[in-house]
Design a protein that fits this description.
single chain, mainly beta, Jelly Rolls, 2 domains, four-stranded antiparallel beta sheet, 1 helix, 54% strand, signal, Carbohydrate binding protein with CBM6 domain
Length: 175
């Protein structure tokens, strides 16, 4: 056992470096983060939080669009949360609805802290199913993520197995 420890001890000190700021580097001589790895990493168990707003089928909020071709907040599809530190956030939304006329369009977009992100359009069809996601780096503090729409047609949702009006936010790290 002592031979194994003596054999691997020099290898550990060669590969791992700790600088004066208490950062640890693995195969990285000058680590700039708490753990700075030069190479592939395999990890089990990481912390994340999921926020779900809205729902699918019978849990989807009923929605009737204001069809004046101006941007409106999707009713009930907004989430405000706070972060303790900067982190990566994945926001994903799904919307399905229909218009009896089968004409017109609907544009749905993601808005993070007042900044417009991804948007998607569906046009000139009776039924629309839209899904989009966005990766963001958010700073520490309070954040609001919401879904907005714009249409020139009377789109709406009703209770049904094909309906969705849903926002999911996946926050990596602590919050």
């Amino acid at each position: 056992m002592i031979k194994k420890i003596l054999l691997f001890a020099p290898l550990f000190f060669f590969v791992c470096h700790i600088n004066t700021a208490q950062n640890v580097g693995i195969d990285e001589p000058d680590p700039s983060e708490k753990l700075d790895v030069n190479g592939r990493v395999k990890a089990k168990g990481f912390k994340f939080t999921t926020y779900n707003v809205g729902g699918f089928a019978s849990d989807a909020p009923i929605f009737s669009a204001v069809n004046n071709n101006q941007w409106h907040d999707m009713p009930g599809i907004t989430r405000t949360f706070s972060l303790d530190e900067a982190t990566t956030v994945i926001s994903s939304y799904t919307f399905s609805g229909y218009t009896p006329a089968g004409s017109g369009y609907i544009i749905v977009r993601l808005v993070i802290d007042g900044v417009v992100g991804n948007s998607i359009i569906s046009g000139y069809t009776t039924y629309s199913g839209l899904h989009c996601q966005q990766f963001s780096e958010l700073s520490a503090g309070s954040h609001t993520i919401k879904v907005q729409y714009r249409t020139n047609s009377p789109f709406r949702t009703e209770i049904g197995d094909y309906m969705a009006n849903y926002l999911q936010i996946l926050v990596f790290g602590s919050n």
